[in-house]
Amino acid sequence: MYTIRNLLFFITVSVMIYGCATIRKFPASSDLAETRLMDAELQTPQSMTIYRDSLLLVMNNLNTNPHHIRVFDIAGKKAVNNLFPAGSKKGGTMAFMSFGISDSLVWVFDVAKNGFITANIDSVLKSNGSLEYYSEYRIKPQVFYYDATLLNRNEALLSGNYDTDEKLSYVKFADTTQNKKLLSYLEDSAIGSSRFKKTSYESFMLLKPDKKKLLLACRYSDQFELLDLTTGAHKKMKGPIGFAPQLAPFEDNSGRPVAAPDNATMFGFLKGFATEKFIYLLFSGNEIKSPRRFYSNQVLVYNWEGQPVKQFNLKNDIVCFSVSSDDKTLYTLNPRTRVISFSELKW
Fold it and tell me: Which InterPro entries does the protein's record reference (predicted)?
Protein backbone atom coordinates (compact mmCIF):
# COMPACT_ATOMS: atom_id res chain seq x y z
CA MET A 1 0.00 0.00 0.00
CA TYR A 2 2.73 2.43 0.97
CA THR A 3 5.53 2.58 -1.62
CA ILE A 4 7.79 5.36 -2.85
CA ARG A 5 7.88 5.67 -6.63
CA ASN A 6 9.25 9.13 -7.23
CA LEU A 7 11.34 11.70 -5.43
CA LEU A 8 10.70 15.15 -6.89
CA PHE A 9 12.54 18.26 -5.83
CA PHE A 10 10.99 21.66 -6.42
CA ILE A 11 12.92 24.84 -5.82
CA THR A 12 10.83 27.95 -5.30
CA VAL A 13 11.91 31.43 -6.28
CA SER A 14 11.86 34.09 -3.59
CA VAL A 15 10.74 37.57 -4.57
CA MET A 16 10.71 39.73 -1.47
CA ILE A 17 13.52 41.00 0.77
CA TYR A 18 13.39 39.98 4.44
CA GLY A 19 16.38 41.27 6.41
CA CYS A 20 19.45 39.69 4.82
CA ALA A 21 17.37 36.84 3.36
CA THR A 22 14.68 36.73 0.68
CA ILE A 23 11.11 35.85 1.52
CA ARG A 24 8.56 34.36 -0.81
CA LYS A 25 5.48 36.48 -1.13
CA PHE A 26 2.13 34.77 -0.72
CA PRO A 27 -0.68 35.39 -3.22
CA ALA A 28 -2.75 37.02 -0.48
CA SER A 29 -2.31 38.25 3.06
CA SER A 30 -4.71 39.53 5.69
CA ASP A 31 -4.73 40.58 9.33
CA LEU A 32 -7.04 38.70 11.65
CA ALA A 33 -9.15 40.05 14.47
CA GLU A 34 -9.03 37.84 17.56
CA THR A 35 -12.03 37.29 19.82
CA ARG A 36 -11.56 35.84 23.28
CA LEU A 37 -13.28 32.48 23.71
CA MET A 38 -12.19 31.21 27.13
CA ASP A 39 -9.28 30.73 29.53
CA ALA A 40 -7.28 27.53 28.99
CA GLU A 41 -7.05 27.05 32.79
CA LEU A 42 -3.62 25.40 32.44
CA GLN A 43 -0.21 26.65 33.56
CA THR A 44 1.72 25.71 30.43
CA PRO A 45 -0.68 24.95 27.54
CA GLN A 46 1.40 23.74 24.61
CA SER A 47 -0.64 21.99 21.91
CA MET A 48 -4.24 21.95 20.73
CA THR A 49 -6.48 20.05 18.36
CA ILE A 50 -10.18 20.05 17.52
CA TYR A 51 -12.83 17.31 17.42
CA ARG A 52 -15.93 17.53 15.21
CA ASP A 53 -15.77 21.33 15.31
CA SER A 54 -17.25 21.26 18.80
CA LEU A 55 -14.46 20.36 21.24
CA LEU A 56 -10.94 21.70 21.73
CA LEU A 57 -8.34 19.41 23.30
CA VAL A 58 -5.45 21.25 24.95
CA MET A 59 -2.25 19.57 26.12
CA ASN A 60 -0.47 20.88 29.20
CA ASN A 61 3.35 20.95 28.98
CA LEU A 62 5.44 20.21 32.11
CA ASN A 63 2.32 18.60 33.46
CA THR A 64 1.70 18.56 37.22
CA ASN A 65 -1.99 17.69 36.90
CA PRO A 66 -3.55 14.21 37.25
CA HIS A 67 -4.36 14.32 33.51
CA HIS A 68 -2.36 15.54 30.51
CA ILE A 69 -5.15 16.92 28.31
CA ARG A 70 -8.13 19.12 29.07
CA VAL A 71 -11.25 19.15 26.88
CA PHE A 72 -13.19 22.36 26.26
CA ASP A 73 -16.67 22.76 24.81
CA ILE A 74 -16.57 25.52 22.19
CA ALA A 75 -20.26 26.43 22.30
CA GLY A 76 -20.43 26.28 26.09
CA LYS A 77 -17.06 28.05 26.52
CA LYS A 78 -16.04 25.80 29.37
CA ALA A 79 -13.95 22.77 30.31
CA VAL A 80 -15.95 19.54 30.24
CA ASN A 81 -13.49 16.73 30.92
CA ASN A 82 -9.85 15.61 31.26
CA LEU A 83 -8.09 12.91 29.25
CA PHE A 84 -5.00 10.70 29.58
CA PRO A 85 -4.33 10.03 33.25
CA ALA A 86 -0.69 10.55 34.20
CA GLY A 87 1.23 7.52 35.43
CA SER A 88 3.28 4.45 34.56
CA LYS A 89 0.48 1.88 34.97
CA LYS A 90 -1.08 0.28 31.90
CA GLY A 91 -3.15 2.92 30.14
CA GLY A 92 -1.35 5.72 31.95
CA THR A 93 0.71 8.32 30.11
CA MET A 94 4.19 9.36 31.20
CA ALA A 95 5.76 11.68 28.62
CA PHE A 96 4.83 12.54 25.05
CA MET A 97 5.36 15.04 22.25
CA SER A 98 2.71 13.87 19.78
CA PHE A 99 -1.04 13.68 20.19
CA GLY A 100 -4.05 13.79 17.93
CA ILE A 101 -7.35 12.31 16.83
CA SER A 102 -7.77 9.63 14.16
CA ASP A 103 -11.43 9.09 13.34
CA SER A 104 -12.91 8.45 16.81
CA LEU A 105 -9.60 7.52 18.45
CA VAL A 106 -7.81 10.08 20.57
CA TRP A 107 -4.15 9.15 21.01
CA VAL A 108 -0.75 10.18 22.32
CA PHE A 109 2.66 8.73 21.49
CA ASP A 110 4.37 8.10 24.81
CA VAL A 111 8.16 8.33 24.37
CA ALA A 112 8.76 6.70 27.75
CA LYS A 113 6.60 3.68 26.91
CA ASN A 114 7.65 3.79 23.24
CA GLY A 115 4.11 3.37 22.01
CA PHE A 116 0.65 4.76 21.49
CA ILE A 117 -1.91 5.22 24.26
CA THR A 118 -5.40 5.41 22.76
CA ALA A 119 -9.06 5.61 23.69
CA ASN A 120 -12.38 5.98 21.93
CA ILE A 121 -12.99 9.66 22.47
CA ASP A 122 -16.78 9.40 22.70
CA SER A 123 -16.56 6.64 25.31
CA VAL A 124 -13.90 8.27 27.43
CA LEU A 125 -15.69 11.64 27.44
CA LYS A 126 -18.78 9.97 28.92
CA SER A 127 -16.78 8.07 31.52
CA ASN A 128 -14.85 8.96 34.65
CA GLY A 129 -11.67 8.76 32.60
CA SER A 130 -10.11 5.84 34.46
CA LEU A 131 -7.25 3.78 33.02
CA GLU A 132 -9.49 0.91 31.95
CA TYR A 133 -10.72 2.96 28.98
CA TYR A 134 -7.21 3.30 27.48
CA SER A 135 -5.27 0.81 25.34
CA GLU A 136 -1.55 0.57 24.64
CA TYR A 137 0.20 -0.25 21.37
CA ARG A 138 3.94 -0.46 21.94
CA ILE A 139 6.58 -0.25 19.25
CA LYS A 140 9.29 -2.92 19.31
CA PRO A 141 12.24 -2.79 19.49
CA GLN A 142 12.65 0.21 21.79
CA VAL A 143 13.71 2.98 19.38
CA PHE A 144 13.44 6.76 19.66
CA TYR A 145 11.27 8.46 17.05
CA TYR A 146 10.97 12.22 16.79
CA ASP A 147 7.32 12.12 15.77
CA ALA A 148 4.51 9.65 15.32
CA THR A 149 0.94 9.63 14.07
CA LEU A 150 -1.75 6.97 14.45
CA LEU A 151 -3.68 5.88 11.36
CA ASN A 152 -6.04 3.47 13.14
CA ARG A 153 -5.90 0.74 15.79
CA ASN A 154 -3.64 -1.36 13.57
CA GLU A 155 -1.39 1.07 11.70
CA ALA A 156 0.84 4.07 12.36
CA LEU A 157 3.50 6.29 10.81
CA LEU A 158 6.81 6.99 12.58
CA SER A 159 9.44 9.56 11.63
CA GLY A 160 12.90 10.55 12.80
CA ASN A 161 14.73 7.30 13.61
CA TYR A 162 18.21 8.83 13.64
CA ASP A 163 20.09 5.55 14.16
CA THR A 164 18.81 3.89 10.98
CA ASP A 165 17.96 4.94 7.43
CA GLU A 166 14.27 5.24 8.35
CA LYS A 167 13.28 8.83 7.73
CA LEU A 168 9.63 7.77 7.63
CA SER A 169 8.21 4.33 8.35
CA TYR A 170 4.86 2.57 8.20
CA VAL A 171 4.19 0.04 10.99
CA LYS A 172 1.46 -2.51 11.51
CA PHE A 173 1.04 -3.57 15.13
CA ALA A 174 -0.42 -7.03 14.50
CA ASP A 175 2.02 -8.05 11.74
CA THR A 176 5.46 -6.45 11.82
CA THR A 177 6.44 -8.25 8.60
CA GLN A 178 4.35 -5.64 6.79
CA ASN A 179 6.35 -2.72 8.21
CA LYS A 180 7.84 -0.55 5.46
CA LYS A 181 10.34 2.26 5.04
CA LEU A 182 8.55 5.05 3.18
CA LEU A 183 11.31 7.65 3.04
CA SER A 184 15.06 7.14 3.25
CA TYR A 185 17.70 9.47 4.70
CA LEU A 186 20.27 8.18 2.20
CA GLU A 187 18.06 9.24 -0.70
CA ASP A 188 17.96 12.79 0.68
CA SER A 189 21.04 14.55 -0.70
CA ALA A 190 20.95 17.16 2.10
CA ILE A 191 21.15 14.51 4.85
CA GLY A 192 22.64 11.18 3.75
CA SER A 193 23.99 8.97 6.54
CA SER A 194 25.05 11.82 8.86
CA ARG A 195 23.37 11.56 12.26
CA PHE A 196 24.12 15.26 12.79
CA LYS A 197 22.23 16.11 9.58
CA LYS A 198 19.36 13.80 10.51
CA THR A 199 18.82 15.65 13.79
CA SER A 200 19.30 19.02 12.06
CA TYR A 201 16.35 18.30 9.78
CA GLU A 202 14.00 16.95 12.47
CA SER A 203 10.40 17.41 11.35
CA PHE A 204 6.85 17.05 12.64
CA MET A 205 4.10 15.35 10.66
CA LEU A 206 0.67 16.49 9.52
CA LEU A 207 -1.72 13.91 8.08
CA LYS A 208 -4.44 14.91 5.65
CA PRO A 209 -7.84 13.93 7.16
CA ASP A 210 -8.51 11.44 4.34
CA LYS A 211 -5.12 9.84 5.24
CA LYS A 212 -3.91 9.95 1.64
CA LYS A 213 -1.19 12.59 2.02
CA LEU A 214 1.38 13.49 4.64
CA LEU A 215 3.45 16.59 5.33
CA LEU A 216 6.81 16.74 7.13
CA ALA A 217 7.68 20.26 8.34
CA CYS A 218 11.19 21.13 9.56
CA ARG A 219 11.80 22.69 12.95
CA TYR A 220 15.14 24.40 12.20
CA SER A 221 14.50 25.15 8.53
CA ASP A 222 11.53 26.37 6.56
CA GLN A 223 11.63 23.31 4.36
CA PHE A 224 8.72 20.89 4.15
CA GLU A 225 8.03 17.65 2.31
CA LEU A 226 4.84 16.20 0.89
CA LEU A 227 4.26 12.48 0.42
CA ASP A 228 1.32 10.89 -1.35
CA LEU A 229 0.69 7.74 0.70
CA THR A 230 -1.27 6.14 -2.12
CA THR A 231 1.09 6.64 -5.07
CA GLY A 232 4.36 7.31 -3.24
CA ALA A 233 4.89 10.61 -5.10
CA HIS A 234 7.18 12.86 -3.06
CA LYS A 235 7.99 16.58 -3.14
CA LYS A 236 10.48 18.65 -1.19
CA MET A 237 9.50 22.33 -0.96
CA LYS A 238 11.11 25.49 0.38
CA GLY A 239 9.18 27.85 2.65
CA PRO A 240 8.99 31.65 2.66
CA ILE A 241 12.74 32.24 3.20
CA GLY A 242 14.35 28.98 2.18
CA PHE A 243 17.01 28.76 4.89
CA ALA A 244 18.89 25.59 5.83
CA PRO A 245 19.44 24.44 9.43
CA GLN A 246 22.20 26.30 11.28
CA LEU A 247 23.16 24.11 14.24
CA ALA A 248 26.32 23.02 16.00
CA PRO A 249 27.64 19.44 16.36
CA PHE A 250 27.26 18.01 19.84
CA GLU A 251 27.39 14.62 21.57
CA ASP A 252 24.55 13.21 23.63
CA ASN A 253 24.97 11.24 26.86
CA SER A 254 25.80 8.13 24.84
CA GLY A 255 28.50 9.89 22.84
CA ARG A 256 26.42 9.92 19.65
CA PRO A 257 26.54 13.00 17.38
CA VAL A 258 23.48 15.25 17.44
CA ALA A 259 22.67 18.78 16.33
CA ALA A 260 22.37 21.46 19.01
CA PRO A 261 21.17 25.05 18.60
CA ASP A 262 23.76 27.82 18.72
CA ASN A 263 23.62 31.61 18.36
CA ALA A 264 23.09 31.35 14.58
CA THR A 265 20.12 28.97 14.82
CA MET A 266 16.79 30.04 13.38
CA PHE A 267 13.47 28.35 13.95
CA GLY A 268 11.32 27.33 11.02
CA PHE A 269 7.88 25.81 11.43
CA LEU A 270 6.60 25.58 15.00
CA LYS A 271 3.20 23.91 14.75
CA GLY A 272 0.69 23.01 12.09
CA PHE A 273 -2.81 21.84 11.33
CA ALA A 274 -4.33 20.00 8.37
CA THR A 275 -7.77 20.13 6.79
CA GLU A 276 -8.99 18.45 3.61
CA LYS A 277 -8.27 21.59 1.58
CA PHE A 278 -5.26 23.19 3.23
CA ILE A 279 -2.09 22.91 5.28
CA TYR A 280 -1.68 25.55 8.00
CA LEU A 281 1.82 26.21 9.39
CA LEU A 282 2.85 28.49 12.24
CA PHE A 283 6.07 30.05 10.95
CA SER A 284 8.75 31.53 13.20
CA GLY A 285 11.83 32.72 11.28
CA ASN A 286 13.22 33.98 14.60
CA GLU A 287 16.72 33.40 15.94
CA ILE A 288 17.23 31.36 19.08
CA LYS A 289 18.14 34.45 21.10
CA SER A 290 14.76 36.02 20.32
CA PRO A 291 12.17 35.93 23.14
CA ARG A 292 9.68 34.97 20.40
CA ARG A 293 11.64 31.92 19.21
CA PHE A 294 8.92 29.45 20.23
CA TYR A 295 5.99 31.69 19.28
CA SER A 296 4.73 33.48 16.20
CA ASN A 297 1.83 35.48 14.82
CA GLN A 298 2.19 34.27 11.20
CA VAL A 299 0.07 31.38 9.94
CA LEU A 300 1.02 30.31 6.41
CA VAL A 301 -1.49 28.39 4.31
CA TYR A 302 -0.56 25.96 1.53
CA ASN A 303 -2.64 23.61 -0.57
CA TRP A 304 -1.87 19.88 -0.69
CA GLU A 305 0.29 20.39 -3.77
CA GLY A 306 2.59 22.60 -1.69
CA GLN A 307 1.58 25.85 -3.36
CA PRO A 308 1.23 28.96 -1.15
CA VAL A 309 -2.36 30.15 -0.75
CA LYS A 310 -2.49 32.86 1.89
CA GLN A 311 -0.72 34.35 4.90
CA PHE A 312 -2.72 35.23 8.00
CA ASN A 313 -1.27 37.73 10.49
CA LEU A 314 -2.41 37.76 14.10
CA LYS A 315 -2.07 40.67 16.50
CA ASN A 316 -0.70 38.42 19.25
CA ASP A 317 1.82 35.61 19.30
CA ILE A 318 0.42 32.11 19.66
CA VAL A 319 1.93 28.77 20.64
CA CYS A 320 -0.54 26.52 18.80
CA PHE A 321 -3.82 26.56 16.89
CA SER A 322 -6.58 24.51 15.28
CA VAL A 323 -8.91 25.12 12.33
CA SER A 324 -12.54 24.17 11.75
CA SER A 325 -13.19 21.55 9.08
CA ASP A 326 -14.80 24.13 6.76
CA ASP A 327 -11.69 26.38 6.95
CA LYS A 328 -13.76 29.28 8.29
CA THR A 329 -12.56 29.54 11.91
CA LEU A 330 -9.07 29.64 13.41
CA TYR A 331 -8.72 28.79 17.12
CA THR A 332 -5.52 30.08 18.75
CA LEU A 333 -3.80 29.75 22.12
CA ASN A 334 -1.83 32.68 23.55
CA PRO A 335 1.11 31.36 25.63
CA ARG A 336 1.40 34.48 27.78
CA THR A 337 -2.24 35.03 28.71
CA ARG A 338 -3.19 31.33 28.34
CA VAL A 339 -6.37 32.46 26.57
CA ILE A 340 -8.05 30.59 23.71
CA SER A 341 -9.34 32.94 21.01
CA PHE A 342 -10.97 32.54 17.62
CA SER A 343 -10.74 34.39 14.32
CA GLU A 344 -12.89 34.36 11.23
CA LEU A 345 -10.94 33.32 8.14
CA LYS A 346 -11.78 35.26 5.01
CA TRP A 347 -10.56 33.90 1.71
Answer: Quino_amine_DH_bsu (IPR011044)
CATH label of the domain that carries residue 333: 2.120.10.30
Report how far residue 60's alpha carbon sits from residue 56's, in angstroms, rounded to the nearest whole number: 13
Q: What is the mean pLDDT of residues 80-95?
A: 91
Query: Residue 105: what pLDDT?
Result: 96
Domain assignment of residue 52, yes or no: yes
Residues 139 and 114: beta-carbon distance below 8 Å? yes
What's the CA gap between 71 and 139, in Å, rounded?
27
Q: How much is the pTM?
A: 0.91
- For residue 278, the surrounding DSSP H or E stretch is strand 278-283
CA distance 106 to 51: 9
Residue 255 makes CB contacts below 8 A (sequence gap 6+) with none
pLDDT of 12 strictly over 50: no
Domain ranges, residue 158: 6-344
> Is residue 1 included in any domain, yes or no?
no
Whether residue 13 has pLDDT greater than 70:
no
Distance CA 63, CA 110 (A): 14
Q: What angle do CA 215, 216, 217 make, to 5 degrees?
A: 115
Say which residues have a Cβ less than 8 Å from residue 333's Cβ, sequence separation at least 6.
40, 45, 48, 58, 318, 319, 320, 321, 339, 340, 341
Mean pLDDT computed over 92-105 = 90
Per-residue pLDDT band at 63 (split at 50, 70, 90)? low
The structural domain count of the chain equals 1
Closest among 68, 86, 29 to 314, alpha carbons compared: 29
